[in-house]
Design goal:
This protein is of the alpha/beta class. The strands form 4 sheets. An 8-stranded mixed barrel has the order 13-14-16-17-18-19-20-21, surrounded by 4 helices. Strands 2-1-5-4-3 form a 5-stranded antiparallel sheet, with helices on both faces. Helix 1 (8-23) packs antiparallel against helix 4 (76-94). The chain is elongated. The termini are far apart.
Length: 711
């Protein structure tokens, strides 16, 4: 039989076991190793919850780091082994089935928080020891006269037993005494230490205030100071410390000695440097990541007068196809090779390359002549991608689209610059890719406006900002109004009335076209029913409503239409749904099935913009359409008399073909009387355009219909 898989508690226990085995040898505790493991279990559970939490809480990692100090894991080696264990096994045993890259990033942040919590707790413990030592020193000094031997014994016990380094020197800087902890930190003998002077312990990384503070203390102008300071060990390596120096006075208050307390922070500093590197560099490619890039970009944009910047935003073309076909491992190797090539393109001072994530990279150049340099940088990047990359024995051609932004420092922020580069990159991709484009403020503004309209669309529908205008459909034979086409408009709070060309493509892209189209259909059908009820003497009026390609593929199209017709009481033959010719080019039976069902119910289907989709005319027989709407491009020449004879022949042929297939012909864009008369002679059935009326409110359509009825 197959063994049952380990549960979360078993995996958590396994992680705690590994952790305890790693840390126990360097921990000062009276517990046994299994007892120590039990002590670590709550901390392991806390790390597991923090790893899988919806939002990252640095306090959880800090609390675990502080708990290590409480468990007597005060040796820096204990922290180093703990972080190595968390780095290697936390995601493995506690990550469950979550996204590995995100979990590894979360684990790295937890390690950083643990190190910070460990350091803070150790610092507080050290300060407590320092305070105890200072009190012991003061007590020893004040009790010299009455209990010299007892105080000396107590002071010596504190002095030698302290976990931090302690040194005593006179005011001339001669070292008088050092404890064992200080000797171990420096790795020298007591004789070598006592033979040195404080002023000799300079280091190139000393902060500017270190030695002025020292001089103030030995002059008696300062009681103590605290700094971070580096020292040279005898072997030449660096020792980093948290250094506190206090002034000791005699019974009369005169300065007599200086007392130095040192905490070794070398391992912690190296760990912080490692964590800083991991936090600012991409784990896959080794390039600077988004965090470090934004730091550099912000610095470049805040440079002084005369400084400029240039930015190249690169997105690989078709990278998803490579991932889908060859696998993510191959995709990762491709990204590493691309990163190496990009790195070789940005080697001059002031240039850097970073990976923002996925297949997106950026290259930054700074200086006084970036207008020329950024163009050259973009060219080098494009040339670097020309040579195919070999992955698993296959030569892959890599293409990329680059958006280039260049300008003076101090005028824009990082977010604005990156947004402009992103917009420009997508403009290059839309133009065919494998190219770079320069940022255009006007194009940026249009893209930002489009984005604003896209994000405002859902709320606009809920707030009722859309309305419908109706353009009459006129019978060319007798001039009567036979119906109207419903045309949706958006009354935008900032931009005013927007036509469908401004927002319908956005609605189709986001999928909002389905609820918006349903709303237009419902409102238009209800309006057609009102026309019938209030003006029955004007004759039957048909309502035409446009359907987008997205609506055609929506499974609820037929049922929504049936429900709307039934609720309004409008007959199916009073509704015409217009579908663009391009939407039906190459349509299979599945796409045509809902249109056929609607046609069988009595709904007219009109083929809109006919003549622009380059469809096979023979396909008309298999489409469930009853009306052809001839595109205005075929009839524009008829606005003047005489019309182009070639255009007349084309329209005449289309009308003859349509009528032979029992299809009615509607013409769009009629703007002159001569045009209308010529179309009537050619046999077109109905027309619409500004010659008859512009789109308007439903009441105006009634006025036109009543005028025709009286006439």
């Amino acid at each position: 039989m197959t063994a049952e898989p380990d549960g979360p508690e078993d995996r958590l226990r396994r992680f705690a076991t590994i952790w305890s085995r790693a840390v126990f040898p360097v921990t000062s505790t009276s517990l046994t190793r299994p007892e120590f493991e039990d002590q670590l279990m709550p901390l392991a559970r806390r790390l597991s919850r923090a790893l899988l939490a919806r939002t990252f809480e640095a306090a959880e990692g800090q609390a675990v780091g502080a708990a290590l100090i409480e468990a007597h894991c005060t040796d820096p080696e204990a922290l180093s082994r703990t972080l190595d264990c968390v780095d290697a096994y936390l995601v493995l045993y506690c990550g469950e089935d979550g996204p590995q890259e995100a979990l590894r990033t979360r684990s790295a942040r937890l390690q950083h928080a643990m190190a910070a919590g460990f350091a803070q707790a150790l610092r507080e413990r050290t300060l407590a020891e320092q305070e105890a030592i200072s009190r012991a020193a003061m007590s020893a000094r004040s009790l010299v006269a009455e209990a010299l031997h007892a105080s000396e014994a107590r002071f010596r016990a504190v002095f030698e037993g302290a976990a931090i380094g302690i040194g005593i020197a006179d005011l001339e800087g001669n070292i008088l005494q050092v404890n064992g902890a200080l000797l171990r930190m420096f790795g020298g003998s007591e004789q070598s230490m006592r033979g040195r002077r404080v002023q000799e312990w300079t280091h190139p990384d000393d902060a500017p205030q270190v030695w002025p503070l020292y001089e103030e203390l030995v002059r008696g102008e300062r009681e103590h100071y605290h700094v971070e300071k580096a020292f040279y060990r005898p072997d030449g390596t660096a020792l980093w410390t948290n250094l506190t120096v206090s002034l000791l006075r005699d019974a009369d208050g005169r300065p007599q000695y200086q007392l130095a307390l040192m905490e070794d922070t070398t391992e912690r500093r190296l760990l912080n440097l490692r964590l800083r590197y991991e936090a600012t560099h991409d784990a896959l490619t080794g390039l600077p990541n988004r965090t470090l890039f934004f730091e550099r970009l912000e610095k470049a944009l805040s440079a002084g007068e005369g400084q400029r910047f240039g930015l190249c935003y690169l997105d690989l073309d078709g990278f998803k196809t490579i991932n889908d076909s060859l696998g993510h491992a191959a995709g990762d190797r491709l990204l590493v090779e691309v990163a190496d090539r990009l790195q070789s393109c940005a080697t001059a001072p002031g240039e850097m390359v970073a990976r923002l994530g996925g297949d997106e990279f950026v290259a930054l150049t700074t200086g006084t002549d970036t207008e020329r340099e950024v163009d050259e940088l973009a060219g080098r990047i494009m040339n670097a991608l020309v040579t195919p990359i070999s992955i698993d024995g296959r030569d892959l051609t890599v293409r990329g689209s680059i958006g280039v932004v260049e300008g003076p420092a101090g005028e824009r922020g990082p977010a604005e610059v990156l947004r402009s580069a992103d917009i420009t990159m997508y403009r290059a991709k839309s133009a065919g890719g494998n190219r770079f484009e320069l940022a255009d403020p006007e194009a940026d503004a249009r893209a930002i406006t489009r984005h604003g309209l896209t994000t405002a669309l859902p709320a606009a529908l809920d707030r009722g900002e859309f309305f419908i205008e109706y353009q009459p459909l006129v019978h060319l034979g007798d001039g009567s109004v036979r119906g109207a086409e419903a045309l949706v408009r958006w009354l935008h709070p900032q931009h005013g009335v927007l036509g469908p060309d401004r927002f319908i493509p956005l609605a189709e892209h986001t999928g909002l076209i389905v609820p918006l189209g349903r709303w237009v259909l419902e409102q238009s059908v209800r309006q057609a029913r009102l026309w019938q009820e209030r003006h029955a003497d004007a004759g039957p009026l048909r309502i035409n409503v446009n359907l987008s390609p997205c609506q055609l593929t929506h499974p609820g199209l037929v049922q929504d239409t049936v429900d709307i017709l039934e609720r309004s009481g409008l007959a199916a033959d009073a509704l015409c749904l217009e579908v663009t010719e391009s939407a039906l080019i190459g349509a299979d039976d599945d796409l045509l099935k809902p249109l056929r069902r609607l046609a069988e119910m009595g709904v007219d289907i009109a083929l809109d913009d006919f003549g622009t989709g380059y469809s096979n005319l023979a396909n008309l027989r298999r489409l469930p359409v009853s009306i052809l709407k001839l595109d205005r491009s075929f009839t524009q020449s008829m606005q003047q008399f005489p019309a182009d004879p070639v255009d007349l022949k084309i329209v005449e042929g289309i009308v003859t073909l349509a009528h032979s297939l029992n299809l009615a012909v509607t013409v769009e864009g009629v703007e002159t009387g001569a045009q209308a008369e010529q179309l009537r002679i050619l046999g077109c059935d109905t027309a619409q355009g500004w010659y008859y009326a512009r789109p308007g409110p439903p009441e105006r359509l009634h006025d036109l219909a009543l005028v025709d009825a009286v006439g």
